[in-house]
Amino acid sequence: MKIIKNQDTLKEIIDSYKAENKTIGFVPTMGALHRGHLSLIERSTINNDVTLASIFVNPTQFNRREDLEHYPRDIEKDAEMLTSACCDLLFTPSIEDIYSKTELEQPFEFNFQGLDKVMEGVFRPNHFNGVVQIVSKLFTLVQPDKAYFGEKDFQQLAIIRLMTKTFQFSTEIVGCPIIREENGLARSSRNALLSENERKIASHIYAVLKESITFAPVTNIEELKSCTVAAIEQKPELKVEYFEIVDGNSLQPVARMEDSDYIVGCITVYCGKIRLIDNIRYK
Ligand code: PAF
């Protein structure tokens, strides 16, 4: 696997692939890779001539400085994992290579058409502006034919689809299923910050979400929400930040299960100090 550290080298390499009509699959990441990321790489290697991953801990999408400072980083281990997953190229730019001083100082603003007014958008102000800022920059550089994102970050995936349409990128956005640990916990870079005991406790989140599927047809939305939250919080270490049952396309909360053909429950839970997200499809 070739490691590229700056935009100029990346541009040269991308131009040469484009000249040869090679298709490029792109997996943007912030590193601290796990099996979830590798599933995106594997999917890309099957469907493209070249697979490029990026590792860039994007400062503009963190709304808490301490989160950015404590974000897990292990570039050598990440590179080994990508090599074993047959990734062709890894782009690891510096902050200075990506952003000008002005870009770092002035908030980027995107019109989310309401997709930011719920869930993560409420609890992490400006987070999605930072995500759109970096992903649009990376798309401009990489010009991918296909780009791969996990469905765990459900709202992010919807926003990336909107961004792609708004900025008229010709990239196909491929959403990939959540990969879970054996105990059901959704794989996330943040799991590295959980203690062994917290990992066990956090597996309760998915156990309850899975069980809630059984109750969904025989209860109303309000009850489904309150019972799910109460069941999760039976573990004193778990604190639910939000649990919303939304239309899978508009991300707007639904009042009744009959209101849409595509309904997803999206949750964020603190396990101790670590913020974990997950979701479950009801319909
Ligand atoms: O999902 C992530 O890891 C990040 O939000 C992304 C898409 C790589 C942008 O920094």
What would you note in describing this structure?
- This protein is an alpha/beta fold.
- It has two domains: 2-176, HUPs (Rossmann fold, 3-Layer(aba) Sandwich), CATH 3.40.50.620; 189-281, Pantoate--beta-alanine Ligase, Chain: A,domain 2 (2-Layer Sandwich).
- It is 41% helix and 19% strand.
- The chain has helices at residues 7-19, 35-47, 65-70, 75-84, 95-98, 101-105, 120-123, 127-142, 154-166, 196-215, 221-232; strands spanning 2-4, 24-29, 50-55, 89-91, 146-150, 172-176, 238-247, 263-271, 274-281.
- The strands form two sheets. A six-stranded parallel beta sheet has the order 1-4-3-2-5-6, sandwiched between helices.
- Strand 2, helix 2 and strand 3 form a beta-alpha-beta unit.
- Helix 8 (127-142) crosses helix 9 and helix 10 packs antiparallel against helix 11.
- It is globular, with a radius of gyration of 19 Å.
- The mean pLDDT is 97.
Please give the alpha-carbon distance between the first and last residues. 40 Å
Rg of Cα set: 19 Å
Task: State which percent range the strand residues make up.
Answer: 15-25%
Strand order of the largest sheet: 1-4-3-2-5-6
Please tally the helical runs, counting DSSP H or I stretches of 4 or more residues.
11
Number of strands: 9
Order of helices and strands: EHEHEHHEHHHHEHEHHEEE
Under CATH, the topology of the largest domain is which? Rossmann fold
What is the averaged pLDDT score? Answer: 97
Model regions low in confidence, pLDDT < 50 over at least 5 residues: none
What bound compounds does this protein have? Answer: pantoate
What does the main sheet amount to? 6 strands, parallel
The CATH architecture of the largest domain: 3-Layer(aba) Sandwich
Number of domains: 2
By secondary-structure content and strand pairing, the structural class works out as alpha/beta
CATH class of the largest domain: Alpha Beta
Form type = globular
CATH superfamily of the largest domain: HUPs
Proportion of residues in helical segments: 40-55%
